[in-house]
User: Which sequence fits this backbone?
């Protein structure tokens, strides 16, 4: 059985695991990522963690998932979000020399999408579009088991898709960008204004809607419609066999998936209505998908 | 040099050509497609045309481009637009038995996109998104020389992408669908209402705008903005290395490309602004792309 190393690098912690070709985690360690200490220290720390694992020498390669868009062709991060000094740093070159094995890099949403496509809910489907519905909104396109990262790593940056160009601008994203109106953060922002300034997460909003609160019902319904416009745009661009949806908000799927999918069906051609919406199924798509970069991209 | 047969099947005419692996047309014939006489007669006619070509026996396969979404996995048309009785007919099975060589099928926009991606303006680029800006609006995604057709053949049906959900519904497409506001047909419809009921094509609208007609300037400008929203949605879903644009309206590119691209840049992340917009370059992408289906999908 082939084995790969998967690295899930976040702003606070980094996980390193030995993963089997079928997506099973065989060994795993987690340590602080030292994200504020610059790329060399962050990567040296990862190299030490790899050497600590018993079976790391049996692995055929290392895959790394990292926040922000990644230029997979040049092997570096285009725009680092919460890891200092990573933008433009030659991550692949640096680690490859240190570890003497192939190194692959992609962003965390793409990596999670790859895991779900290959060994999770999208398994066996040719075109998988993974969507994280969480504090933010992210996505990943996986075709025939390979991530399509985009020219500069921005494929799947669906947060910025405009679902209603007449809404006011909220932040650096487009006016009417879906993340500003349908993400967990956006729901909370709107609920604080409209319903209760003490609300801090999406879950109580769903509960209020279930209890018949008219404002909460309207808010959830508009979120469903906004998400449906986003899914409809994606479907007309790539028509996936399945949408796999993960992320914190999607854990409340019983409160909104039916309405969202119904609205989606109203925004696509009749022949496209059979696209499936499935919940993500992996506990740790980060390390698993990172490891899968080795089999997806390389000859390993 | 490998040779393939390409078939460009339209509602009026059908072209059959022998095409080299580098996209050169070596032999070609054109006849009426007999589109109203049912699939057997249409396909028998194509088979006879193929046998008429001198070098058809040297070809490694046949590719067919056909209007409307195609289920490439089952080898049939999902929804025939202007060819009678084709929906659900097993085109590939029928022709394969008759010709005794591999047969591939895809829709005409996907086929044209494949030609442009492999031997036209997108040559050498990994992710190509082809857009026809014509009486209608269509598209095709080509990744690493292979068409991504979608689950039911609807990938690239970008006509139905909503660029402004607050516009009135025009036809069977979504209210605010880009085709209803930015296609050649949509431009003419709006120009007849706003400017001159005698207008019959997009070109005179561009000329009026150039001459300083305020209404024409506004119309062209809004079209540029609407197209920019569509391109922005596509870019956030797949981030192509290049957009290749063909079709009748794009022949007037000097009147609107600059403004459209400028508006696009205002609707994407700063790191995505270097995506290239190129004009389609092939005279007959239909037969060439159809032939390329053989090398793109098969082992041929």
Assistant:
């Amino acid at each position: 059985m082939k084995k790969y190393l998967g690295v899930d690098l976040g702003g606070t912690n980094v996980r390193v695991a030995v993963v089997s070709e079928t997506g099973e985690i065989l060994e795993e360690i987690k340590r602080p990522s030292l994200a504020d200490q610059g790329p060399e220290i962050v990567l040296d720390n990862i190299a030490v963690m790899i050497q600590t694992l018993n079976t790391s020498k049996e692995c055929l390669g290392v895959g790394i998932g990292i926040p922000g868009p990644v230029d997979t062709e040049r092997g570096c991060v285009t725009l680092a979000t919460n890891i200092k000094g990573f933008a433009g740093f030659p991550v692949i070159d640096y680690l490859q020399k240190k570890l003497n094995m192939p190194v692959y890099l992609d962003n965390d949403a793409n990596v999670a999408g790859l895991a779900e496509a290959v060994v999770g809910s999208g398994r066996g489907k040719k075109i998988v579009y993974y969507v994280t519905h969480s504090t933010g909104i992210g996505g990943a396109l996986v075709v025939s088991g390979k991530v399509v990262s985009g020219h500069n790593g921005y494929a799947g940056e669906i947060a910025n898709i405009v679902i209603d160009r007449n809404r006011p601008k909220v932040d650096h994203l487009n006016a009417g960008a879906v993340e500003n109106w349908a993400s967990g953060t956006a729901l909370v922002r709107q609920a604080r204004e409209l319903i209760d300034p003490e609300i801090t997460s999406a879950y109580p909003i769903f509960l209020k809607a279930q209890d018949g609160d008219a404002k909460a019902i309207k808010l959830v319904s508009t979120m469903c419609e906004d998400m449906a416009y986003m899914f409809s745009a994606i479907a007309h661009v790539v028509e996936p066999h399945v949408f796999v949806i993960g992320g914190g908000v999607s854990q409340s799927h019983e409160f909104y998936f039916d309405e969202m999918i119904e609205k989606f069906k109203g925004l696509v051609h009749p022949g496209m209505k059979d696209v499936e919406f499935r919940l993500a199924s992996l506990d740790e798509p980060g390390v698993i998908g990172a490891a899968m970069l080795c089999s997806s991209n390389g000859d390993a």
About this structure: Chain A has a mean pLDDT of 94. Residues 3-114+283-297 of chain A form a domain with the Nucleotidyltransferase; domain 5 fold (CATH 3.30.420.40).
